[in-house]
## 1
Amino acid sequence: MPLQRLPRKPEEYSAREIQVLEGLEPVRKRPGMYIGSTDERGLWIMIKEIIDNSVDEAMASRCSNIWIELHKDNFITVSDDGFGIPYDIHPKVGKSALEVAMTVLHAGGKFGEGAYKVSGGLHGVGASAVNALSQYMRVETRRNNKTFFQDYSKGTPKHDVREIKKGDEATEYNYHYVWGTKSGVRTTFKADPEIMQTIEPNMEIVLKQVKNRAYLVAGLYFHIYDGVKDREFHYYFDSGLVALIKHMNKSKGSVHNPIYIHRKLEEIDVEVAIQYSDGFNPTLESYANVQATNDGGTHVTGFKTALTRAINDYARKQGYLKEKDDNLTGEDTLEGITAAIAIKMDSERLQFESQTKDKLGNAEATPIVSQVVKEGLDVFFEENPADGRRIIEKVIIAARARLAARAAKDAVLRKGAFEGGALPGKLADCQERDPAVSELYIVEGDSAGGSAKQGRDRKFQAILPLRGKILNTERARLDKVLEFEEIKSLVIALGTGIGDSIDYNKARYHRVVLMTDADVDGAHIRTLLLTFFYRYLPEMITRGYIYIAQPPLFKVAKG
């Protein structure tokens, strides 16, 4: 039967169906577009935006203190001693500049070349979006020995901008902070529970992120007050990124003194700190205009390229690598490294790949960072030959281990263990072949395996007993990992492969349940298994394939 065109109904889609969202309505309508999510992470982004407005003041050399208060009733207050928000009438819209900044998207002082040449806020959601997502907000600004304020509800002003005179509504902030300084801004807000899944700030996230900003803006003093637990925290660092990597390496043994590189090239300020530890896993933190770029970006690419080139050049120059030897790889040079990469550049040129600023997109950052880091490392190696020797020796050991791991994996592959070989004999597999509905229960020992087999549904539930505690893979290279029979059995059962031949699409189970005993040993085994997945099969976790069985707390008996 031939297809027939259905009659069109023009009245179903006309001009009246086109919604025009005015003011801050788009933010409340689609909050995820502005803060990523409405959960705990989204709440932090709201807090971060207000804090970073004050940090921008500090980067413009206009602020030296930031106060952050988390109140018992989930109100959050951020204050600074910067220049304050202008409160005079905006010539274009005929309203106070304070009201415009807080109620109009993309309004602010960071879009021109004047006040804020370097700022993290250009691509941010902005204070106005935070205002839209807040049940209540008050902004107080002090300039020229006068203080003005405005209250808002869900982004809408409750009254015109008013002046606070000494004695009128003199809040504690006005007395201690504003009246004691020539200028500043104080913002108090409470997230709207109608939109946000949680309105209670996570103190651990706040402390970690604020501490990072103190590392990144040397000389800026952060004062944090936790009103819930009545405690204070103060962060101030003179040495910036060097202090950061020392903190990151405090539980590890360092191989050499920290390397610090700082240079401005073609209007991009590049700052890098590097220190190798006795561990195996790399730790890289990157920032652009104080914003943490958790997914890296072009500046990290430039750093990695320069690091590998500089180490290879020095290794050949010092005779560690002969003419016939292959170059050290990026994987080798990153093993055990702790590094922080931070760039600052003109806000108007700054490009992030998302509103939440997780990845830097400026193509010009790659060659500039690469040049600065390469030349900086060349100088460091020449001036610090003992540290250079320690770094090269560590990287060469990593290269040898990589080759040994590849040989070990190849040997296993030649035996057909990972691909096309038989499944482990102790695996009680399920009948189902669709991984989306198949489950694998990893249990502790043969006795637990027997009980699990009796209680399972063999149609879709498989059981794999592991004998004893598996290897701690946190400090083990792949060649050592592959020598451990229990891990080898687990990888074979999963079907994903391991190392550079991983294919997560070949996973035989989309639900892997860690079912260990409800005692200290069981908790330890569960931790070891999670460590293995985190280090060697991380996408099993990010895809949501890993589960933890919770032991029952009570037993109900009948009769």
## 2
Amino acid sequence: MAEKISSDRIIYEDNHFIAVNKECGEIVQSDKTGDVPLIDKVKQFIKERDSKPGRVFLEVTHRIDRPVSGVVLFAKTSKGLSRINNLFQEGKIQKKYWAIVKNMPPKDSDTLVHYILRDSKKNKSYAYHRDVKGSKIARLEYELVGRTQNYYLLSINLITGRHHQIRAQLSKIGCPIRGDLKYGYPRSNPDGGINLHSRIFAFTHPISGDAIRIVADPPNDKLWEQFMLLGVDL
């Protein structure tokens, strides 16, 4: 039987969209690994739940990296897909992330502006303070919202959506994300993921006009629980 997601991972759904809380280690779309992508698991869930005899229409609207958890939004209709793509292009979607880092950031809050250069062969991006050939400007805002004895929690408003942007920019300021070996953290996490979580995805619904705010709980582990117990403000 084809693999599907469990219903408790669906965090938003209407006639045009469905949002899922992605787990660390899942791929959103097919890649060379041959692992079952999240989109196929969601299609199978819809097919069985709605008793659909034919092909289920479902398209990716955006992606988050394999080791990252949190909100992923899929389009269930072509109309929804084209409209949400327009919102992305117009910068009208708010994406907030949580990141756990070991090192205290230089400031409690700041706007980071770098030029991101992607190396496709290494599947890695590099952040520069100046414009270099082939780079794209990258912007994010961060705020220190929690701390434990050993770690700091940053809330990040992602303004542009470059390849590995948050990971590269935080590494550039000396704050690699916990578990992110690729960007300078000394150790991997037991689950192979990193402590970067797509927490909030908010937009004005392009068809109904309703204000949509999708929130995904972080993975169920002790470190995330410590920050949740602190009553971290969204």
## 3
Amino acid sequence: MEHLYLYILAAGFSLFVPFLRSAFGPIHTLIHECGHAIASLILSGKVYSISLYRTTEGVAFTASGSWISSVLVTYAGYTFTSIIAIFNFYLISVGQSILLFYMLLGLAFISLILWVRNIYGMIWLFLFIGGCLLLVYFQLRPVMEIVVYFLSCIILVHSTFASFTIFCFSLSNKHSAGDADRLQQLTYIPAFIWGLLFFFQSIGSTYIIFRFII
């Protein structure tokens, strides 16, 4: 598992290279927005669409039937990515990288069919799915494992960076703090409290991964 540290470094490097960030970052955005969508469906809400952008920002258009549902759906995005980051590294640690590859491919396919409707998001998913299917067709198992390692590290690193960014925005410009600002509107709890919670969650998931899995 020690080799994963190299992938984590590569994922961290990609944050500061615009082309790489636009190319690989949307996998984290997809997980985040699917967190909102899945929470909405579990709570008997509706999912209208998901948009993915080259800036690695995204938005899920959902509808909830109650105040508590709205709170939970809004809260779900960052929480879901933290949980998925742990889940990904756990599957890798028990030798189920190929299963994880197909799970990510399946999520991308479902999202394209059901939810993602903006041009950039659809193009990105077409390319992602097409690339994955080529690896499956040519049975390039070692490359599939490399893809899983790198994407799992992308999800972890971007989750931590995004939650830290939201926390910083919640302190200086709450109206740019995304989910934290929305949760403040719903609960009257200050946005920086939600931003801090998101950041602590991501740090907690990182600690679990480094302490107990890698």
## 4
Amino acid sequence: MKIENLLKEKNGVKFLQQRSLQKIVAVALFFVVGFYFISFYVDFSFKKPVSRYEFLNPARNFWHTEDLIINFQPLRDFLNQYEKNPNISIYFEFLNTGSNISVHQDAQFYPASLLKVPVAIAVAKKIERNDWRWDNKLVIMAGDKDDKFGNMYKEQTGSTWTIEELVRRSLVDSDNTAHFILVRNLELAEIEDVYDHMGLKNFLLTRGDLSAKRYSVILRTLYNASYLSEGNSQKILQLLSLSEFKEYVQSGLPDNVLFVHKIGVSKEQNVFLDSGIVYAPNRPYVLTVIVKTADESEAKDIMKTVSAQIYKYVSEYQKEL
């Protein structure tokens, strides 16, 4: 009797296990089949986020309301004093809202070393296409050497340098020799593509002059990573943040504020330029200042005054309640 009871008990357990397994399979099939039919009627794509405010800029969710400044009239009134001088071009753009101010927005000047940034961008794009690598090496030719900016002209002709080092020297030290090595090894179409993307089509066919407003597009392109990948946009901006040239726009900023920028100097044409992104806490903005004068100290004073006033307004602004 005990053996019979034991067999019955084992058979009962086995039966219950089979029933449980059948239930699990049935439930699973129910959900799979149900999801299959529901998918005909419900769009499960995640291409567009659902929002109660579909007509509003979704980027507003990333900023505090107090950092979305649109009233720049007092700052505009201050900058209007430079309208009297046709040899000054200023462009300011508040990146959180796109609000901007231009002084002589159509006045064009030779951008000098600012042109090194589009070339660096063209290099990064060539690397993204897998035509180059950052650790590839290029040769210094005698025709590349230029002693106006940087010390690379002192290096031996025929020596080789990595592309990464050449870009670093071009942007951080504003080294002309490094820049010319990169230009020589790029295709003209590769540089043209950078300018075309930024709305400067056929720029290389012109005299090469730019206004402060037009040049600022290059910085916005890097900030938004709209041409290069996020990684390479970050790389170029990080190199620009290492610039040792602090006597222009940066002289009007607090020491602890990050300024990513490129300067340009053409003493032959008496042009001094500085263009960059000021990373004011939660309130970043683009500022480009170009001054045409034979007196560099005058250019420095103008840039310092403009920079300090803009930073003061942006950093201290509070909305009226």
